[in-house]
Structure formats: C-alpha cells, structure tokens
Fold:
Amino acid sequence: MDCKNCGAPLMGEYCHQCGQRNITERFTIRQIIRDLVRMITNVDSGFWYTMRELFVRPATVVESYLSGATRRYYNPFRYYFLIIAVSALIQLSLGIFDLQQAEIRETLNPNMSEEELQMQLTIMEYVKKFLNIIPLFILPFIALAFKWMYPKGKWNYAEFLISTTFIYGQTAIIGLIPLLVFYFIPQYIGWGFPISLLLSTLYSTYTYQKAFQISVGSAFIRSLFATLIGFVFMFLIMGLVGIVGGIIYAVAFR
Structure:
C-alpha cells in the first residue's frame, strides 16, 4: 500500500517519507471530536496551501482529505475558525456589525420603542462577544441538509460535515470582499445576507458538481435548497430551545 499523501510505499502506520498516518477507516463524529481537541493544542502547517487549493480545486481538496491525505491540508475546523475570527474582527473594528443590526431594525421594526431599542442593543453587545463562535452552530445543520440533498451512500454525515466546513471557511474568505465594500457604501449593507447566501450556494455548486459528477444546474438547486433548509432547521431548533428554556424558567422561578 502506498501513502495517500505523497505516494511512497508504506512500511508501517506512518509514512517514513512525509509522516502521513495511514487512514483506512471512514471519518466519524467521534474522530472529528478527537481532532478538534488536538486542533486546540497543536498548530499544523498548510494554511496558505489549503486556501490556494480551495480556490482552484475545492473538490480535489475535499476528496483527498476524506480519502486520508490529511497531512498536506490544514484542518478544516481550525481553518474555518480562523477565518470567521478574522471576519468577526473586521466586522467589529470597522463597525459593520452595528450597521447591519441598524439596517435590520429599520427594516423589521422601524417604530421600535426606546425600551425595546435599549434591550436589543444590550443583547447585541452580548452577541458581539461570541461573534467568532456563533457561525460554528450553523455547520451541523447545513451539513445535514447537504446529506439529504445529495446522492446517498457516497459520504456519511461526518464526511459532509468536513466538506461543509471547508466550503464555508472558503466562502467566509470570499465574503470579506463585500464586507469591505459595505464599509465604504453602507447604504447597500441590507444586501449582506442575500450576497452571503449566493456566494455559499455558488461555491457549494462549484465543489459538489465536480465531487459528485452531476450537472451544474442540479448542483446549484441542491446547494441552494440545502443552504436554505440548513438555516431554517437551525432557527427552528433555536426557537424550540428558547421556548423550552422560557417554560423552564417560568416554572422554576415564578
């Protein structure tokens, strides 16, 4: 058997030439959790190489990583976390997050009372502290939706979670461009979510069309619905948790 990373003949569990561990089992949630623990305490190389390859050959990156050639690429979860941390820093330092929230208030509730406004501002100040973590919560729901929408049998849920993380990490990099544009022309900041949705759908289409060898049209429809379903599913779960939490609070403290 040859090394999946460099092609050298294997003489043990680890490649003597590049150090890649021979991975024969499929990815599982348990393995992802174990890798996340390692990720926090260890720093791998390959960030810039991974970024470049995800721009030009995203399907190859995903398929190579899932086949076991993990050493040449940056860990997808660490990659995503670093990118959204940079994105959050840009949003907060340039005041883009505040502009987005003001646009949402003006659109959804322009006649908000002073008390409601102060309450929302307080909540948003709290949200700012976790702006680099909140995007992580969408990944499991998006991955599940992609698993539903794409041909069954090729990848399991854990493998879709890995591919989704690569995709959304790269989409976050591309999304830095409209963020900077909104800073200079804030009157268009209301287009932030539609643009983000379009970018993630197009990049998912670009990746999965090649990975699954399906038509561009089919990949686009599947990616669009998977993204929308993922967001809806997340909001439903969050709403349900909020309702249950409110009931528990009312019963326990009133």
Notes: The mean pLDDT is 84. The radius of gyration is 21 Å. Residues 216-253 form the longest helix (38 residues).
